[in-house]
Structure formats: structure tokens, C-alpha cells
Amino acid sequence: MLRVDHIACRYGRIGAVHDASLVVDAGELVALVGANGAGKTTLLRAISGLMPIASGGIHLQNVRIDGLSPREIVRRGVAQCPEERKLWPALTVGENLSMGAYTRTDKPGIASDMARVLELFPRLAERHRQLAGTLSGGEQQMVAIGRALMCRPRLLMLDEPTLGLAPIVIESLMKTIQDINRAGTAVLLVEQNAQLALGMASRAYVIESGVIVREGTGSALLADPDVQAAYLGRGRLKRAGQAEGPRPAAPA
Amino acid sequence: MLETIAQYAFNGLVFGANYALIGIGLTLIFGVMNLANFAHGQFYMLGGFLAYMLVVKLGVNYFAALPLAVLAVAALGWLLERTVFIRLRDRSPMTGVLATIGLAILLESGALLTWGPQPESIPNPLSPMPIEIGPLFITPMRLFVLGVTVVFLLGLYAFMNHTRTGTAMRATFQNRDAAALVGVDIDRLYAVTFALGAGLAALAGVLLGSLFLVHPTMGDSATLKAFIVVILGGLGSVIGSAVGGLILGMAESFGTMVSSAWKDAIGFILVIVILLYRPDGLFRR
Fold first, then answer.
1. Which of A141, A200, B102, B282 has the most C-beta neighbours closer than 10 Å?
2. Are residues A79 and B184, on separate chains, in Cβ contact within 8 Å?
3. Which residues from chain A sit within 8 angstroms of residue B179, using beta carbons?
């Protein structure tokens, strides 16, 4: 569905992404992991049309979308839930969510999607009229995901949704993301927390200094010694002594 | 004594509501586009002069000239955004400051060349005889000016809070990337914002110009007052600008009770005092 072909992006003369290619098929949950500053966010910004690409191409269902405005890209069903959530703190939760459907005009469809988001995150129903800036971090992340869902995306891109959240909140958030994916929305999950992302993704990519250096199934990458050394914060020796090793590869 | 106070309060309200119009326009442009518009007062001046031209030179009815002048300035704002300011997007804030100062000089000099330096009055069909309302003596024109400003301030409030474009404006104000990501057409929204801001300034120019006189340099003090209002209320706060406008209007009006020579200094004294205690203004988000 989404195909990114050898793209490069620059801020002025400084390259942030040098050579990135990835594919997300309909209904997949794909992870993109890498260290801080590896180019993950830049890649998502390029897909959403927030920043121009210097070379390469981006296709959605075989139609070229690089060079289109962010508005056109949202309309084609690619939603991004951006890094650090980027809510509008002085708008109510309800307004934040409704704005997600900004490009849509089908009132009944919007209403049913709103009902679905509130079903997914019942907490937000209670806080519908509250200003988004007054919510806890976890609740804010719910609003950010809900807002992205309000455009009824085919592909939901999530940039570091777990950033700054408590472990218990992260756990329930990940369950919700899996539910969204099972309901038919393809997900591109960008995470620094590689263990978490690789554990739930069917396929995954590793980005390093602006270059996609590895790809494979989530479980294969979890078991990859280089990936472990670089992103899972443990060398082979350490891993041997740990109770919680990588689980055997489950069929994706 | 009480009658005098009521009279000054009413005048303060008339001025304050207009300062609010000017200040809200400035704060919208600043908040949404991140542009400090130093030509804001010149839109105010142009509103007054276009109304004068329409009424005096073209014989248009005053009540038709008012919306025409406002719409013309709003259209000019739209055009300037699409031709000039769109090119300055995402440059350093100083570039925008210099461009708007240049625009201010251009508009003011253009007005001087076109209309000459003498002040003019905009004739209106309302009776100049004050009418008695309770303890107050009010000319019909002042009543009309207050009525129009209040209607516009309420309308603006409804627009910002209850329409799609208004909500998109507030969202862009708070986070532009997030607004772009849900599909807000940022270029169009910027043009709408600039047109709206310029139009609000022009409306105040027609209204206050009808109470007093219009002259090509009237924009300078209007720009300063707009900045006072916006700083009082907190940069980027619409409600703050409305309240800031009323505070400035009241302060000036009651200031003339004490000394009319100090009238224009009062606003600056207020700003200094408020910033000493609330460095972000009264309503900073």
C-alpha cells in the first residue's frame, strides 16, 4: 500500500535521511526502530508531506504522493500521530478529536468514528469538554491517537507514542494499537523502545544515521545479535544471564 | 459627579471596543502567522480613508461605504499575504518586521500623496444632537459605533469558537504542524487570517474616523495602541486582547479627567506596570 523508495531528505545542507526504503502493506503492523536522531521522525514528516524529499519517491497504492500537500495526503488516508503528541492544549478534547475529521464532510460517518474513538478510549468520553492541556500524559496520547483515527485512515503512523508514559499506561496503549490494527488499519509504529515495537510488529525496519540498515520480521530482528547490541541495551553475554530472553519466533 | 463618571465610562467603552477590534486583528496575525504586523495601523487608516473617499468623492451612502471600505482593506490584506508574506514564511521574525515596517511607510506615504496631509471628516447622515439616555448624553453616532463594535466582537467570538475555520485558526495558533497533519490548508488559513486582521483594523478606522477625523498619519498611533493592547492581554490571546482594549480605552478616558495632555502616555504607563507584575500579560495561555 505505502511504498517509500530510496528517499533522502535534507534540512538545509544537512542530510537527515540519506537512503530510506520501506513498504507497509494493507493491514500490516510495521515497526521502524532506531536511536534518537536516526531520521525516524524526518521520514514520517516526509511521508505526511510536511517536508520535501530531495530524491527518491513515495507511493500510496501505486500513486505517487511525494510533492502533495499534507492535506492531500491525509485525504488519501494516511494519518500521522506526531512526536510529542502535538495536541492543541487550549482546545477541548472534543475539539481536538473533531479537528481530526477536518477534511471530511460525511457527518454520519464522522459521528460513528467519534463514537468508535470514545469506545476505544472511554476516558476521553468523560473528559470531552475538558481542555486537552489539562490531561495526563497517557490521556493526551489517547487524544492524539483518537484525533489521527478521526480521518478514518488506511494507514496510521505513530511517532513515539510511548514517550514519557508509565509502563502500565504503555501496556494498555500497545493493546489498543493492536486492536486498531486488527480492525483493519495498517500501522507504521516508530519507536525508540525497540523491544516493545519489535515484539508486536509483523515486520520491522531498523534505521541508523538516515539509512535503513536492516529489515525483517519483528521476531527475527529481536533475535538479531547486532540489533540487540545496538538497540536493546544488552550484549550477548548479558542476554545469556537474563531470564527474559527473546521468545522463539512466532509465525507472523 | 456620578453622571460625569458614567459619561467617561461610556466614552471609554466606545474607544475600548475599537481598541479591542484593532488588537484582536494584530494578535490573530501574530498568533497564527507568527508575524508582528507593524503596518496594522495603516490598515486602520486605509479603512477610514476609503470610507471618506466613497462617501465624499463617489457619493456612496455612509452605511454602504462602511462595509465596502472594510471589505476592500480585507481584500488588500488577502492579496498582500498571497504575494508578499507568503514568501517570507519561516524566515527569521526580523524579516517579517522589516517587511511590515516597509509596508507601513509605503501605505502611509501613498495616502499622503493621494489625499494630502489635511485631516478630513467622514460625513454621516446621523443627527449630531446628543440624546439623553438615563444620566448620559450620547450622540447617535457614538451609539452606532458602540453597537457595531459589540456586534462584531460577539460575532468574532462565535466565529472563533463555533466554526470550522475559527477552530482551525485556534488550532494553527497552538500548533501549526498538527493542524497541517489533520488537513488544514495552511496557505489558505494564513490568507484568511491576514484578511480578517486587516479588515478588523479597517472597521475600527471607519468607526473612529467617523467620530473624529481621518488623516494619513493616524495609523502610527493606532499601531502603537494595538501593540499596547496585545501586550496587556498577553501575546496571542484573543480574549486578552479584548480585555486589554477595554482597559486601555477606560484608562485613556478616565485619564482625560485628570489631564488630557497625559492621555496617550497612560497606555504605556499601564503596560510598564502590568509587565512588572505579569511579565506575560494578563491572559497568557
1. A141
2. no
3. 88, 99
Cα dihedral across residues B9, B11, B13, B15: positive or negative: negative
Mark yes or no for CB contact B181/A88 under 8 Å: no
Partner A contacted by B163 (CB < 8 A): no
Asked if B207 and B151 count as a contact pair (C-beta separation under 8 A), the reply is no
Q: How far apart are CA A206 and CA A34, in angstroms?
A: 6
- Interface predicted TM-score (ipTM) of this complex, two decimals: 0.88
User: Cβ–Cβ of A50/B174 closer than 8 Å?
Assistant: no
pLDDT tens, B232-252?
888 778 889 999 999 999 999
| Ordered structural domains, chain B, with CATH | 2-277 (1.10.3470)
- How much is the pTM? 0.89
Determine contact, residues B20/B245, Cβ cutoff 8 Å.
yes
Q: Strand A78-81: give its sheet, edge to edge.
A: A63-64, A55-60, A2-11, A14-24, A211-217, A203-208, A29-33, A186-191, A155-159, A78-81
Which of A163, A206, A199, A203 lies closest to A186, judged by CA? A203
